[in-house]
UniProtKB/TrEMBL annotation:
Coiled coil: none annotated. Residues 1-16 have a biased composition (Basic and acidic residues). Residues 1-28, 63-92 are annotated as: Disordered. This is 1274_t:CDS:1. One of its GO terms (molecular function) is deSUMOylase activity. One of its GO terms (cellular component) is nucleus. Residues 164-345 form the Ubiquitin-like protease family profile domain. It comes from the Eukaryota. PROSITE patterns: ULP_PROTEASE (PS50600). InterPro entries: Papain-like_cys_pep_sf, Peptidase_C48_C. The keyword Hydrolase applies. The lineage of its organism: Eukaryota, Fungi, Fungi incertae sedis, Mucoromycota, Glomeromycotina.
Length: 377
């Protein structure tokens, strides 16, 4: 940047700099230098785009072509974990925030200011992505393709488990750069629950009590909150293999944010009394995530009432964004990240999505859906 850029900065913030100098907050030449350095670092109007403006921009522009979306995401995504540009200046990620709410719910406790928090239960096992997910072998590829061909010939769903069906069309959403369908996530939830039950029969002492709902659970819960009638969602719990919520340590809930066309994973941690949101696009959806947290708190509150466990001193924290959540570098991998979040959390693995490409994850998930065998079953 030369004199022209310095002039741009002076014109852009002239009033602000003058006011700060008059108030003896900062000498004008220091203010100009500070603004110029910020301009050079971010190469964007001195990084003056507010988060609200950024969300509105993305919502408005979400329907453009894939090539433009992909390019924008690469340049703008906060904490872009896969960028190889040595000198790229990354914009700051929103901090993990916690809202404490105390039953009974009131308008006041839902409007509390956020506080930073990192007090999230830590997984117990450290295992790298290379160990946790590997490329399919030739035999695995042959097995998967044989099943798919046979199912297609007989004109039946590719995979069926309980009341969840994955058709050829749904399975195709695991192709590269595709939005993963809710049916794929729901069937994967079934596989996770089955794996947990298998391990439970082998060793009760080491069992991590956790369940995952299908993708239809949260929309039903959301309607219950809207109409104030929780009977349907409470009766639905046994139907999704959750006869006793309070026998669990954690309940994993995939959530589709309609406004943002985006998947996130919500976790009700009954052991630590926290509602935790895992979002692979941290720079967006903050308001939507907070609403999800509030709805889930209402659900917990109503469930306690129905169970005769209601206590006015019940306190829960809503963690709007779990710290150190891996971030996607594009606009289409959110469903894959939700599956990975659930798989790693249910297996008590530390997140490590940096070393393996999304194509590898998608290929492995496709194999697991088709064969109904998880990699670590």
């Amino acid at each position: 940047p030369g004199e022209k850029n310095m002039g741009d900065i002076e014109n852009m913030d002239k009033t602000k700099q003058k006011n700060r100098a008059m108030l003896n907050i900062e000498p004008r030449e220091v203010s100009v230098r500070r603004e110029s350095e910020l301009y050079r670092a971010n190469k964007t109007k001195a990084a003056k785009i507010s988060r609200i403006e950024y969300e509105e921009y993305m919502d408005r522009d979400y329907g453009r072509s894939k090539s433009k979306q992909s390019g924008y995401a690469e340049h703008r995504t906060w904490r872009s974990i896969n960028s190889n540009r040595e000198n790229e200046k990354k914009l700051k990620t929103s901090l993990p925030v916690t809202t404490s709410v105390t039953a009974p719910m009131t308008a006041e406790n839902l409007g509390q200011l956020f506080n930073t928090s990192s007090d999230i239960p830590a997984p117990m096992v450290v295992l790298s992505a290379q160990q946790f997910y590997t490329l399919l072998t030739e035999n695995e590829n042959s097995e998967m393709n044989g099943i798919i061909d046979n199912k297609n010939k007989n004109n039946v769903p590719i995979s069926e488990l309980g009341n969840v069906l994955v058709t050829a069309d749904s399975l195709s959403t695991l192709d590269d750069k595709m939005y993963v369908s809710g049916d794929v996530i729901s069937l994967y939830a079934k596989l996770i629950n089955r794996r947990i039950e298998k391990r439970k029969t082998k060793s009760v002492n080491t069992q991590h009590e956790i369940k995952m709902t299908n993708t239809y659970f949260y929309p039903t819960l959301e309607k219950s909150v809207a109409n104030g009638n929780f009977d349907r969602v409470l009766k639905w719990l046994p139907k999704v293999d959750i006869p006793d919520l309070y026998a669990l340590e954690q309940l994993l809930i995939p959530v589709h944010l309609i406004r943002g066309k985006h998947w996130v994973l919500a976790v009700i941690d009954l052991k630590t009394k926290k509602i935790i949101l895992y979002d692979s696009m941290a720079c967006l959806n903050s308001i939507d995530r907070q609403k999800v947290g509030e709805n889930l708190f209402r659900f917990v509150q109503e469930h306690r009432k129905a169970s005769g466990l209601f206590n006015n001193s019940l306190e829960w924290d809503i963690v709007n964004l779990a710290p150190n959540t891996p971030q996607q570098p594009n606009h289409f991998d959110c469903g894959v990240y939700v599956i990975l979040f659930a798989d790693y959390l249910s297996a008590q693995r530390v997140f490590d999505f940096h070393n393996v490409s999304m194509e590898t994850y998608r290929q492995r998930i496709r194999y697991e859906i088709v064969t109904q065998k998880l990699f670590h079953d």
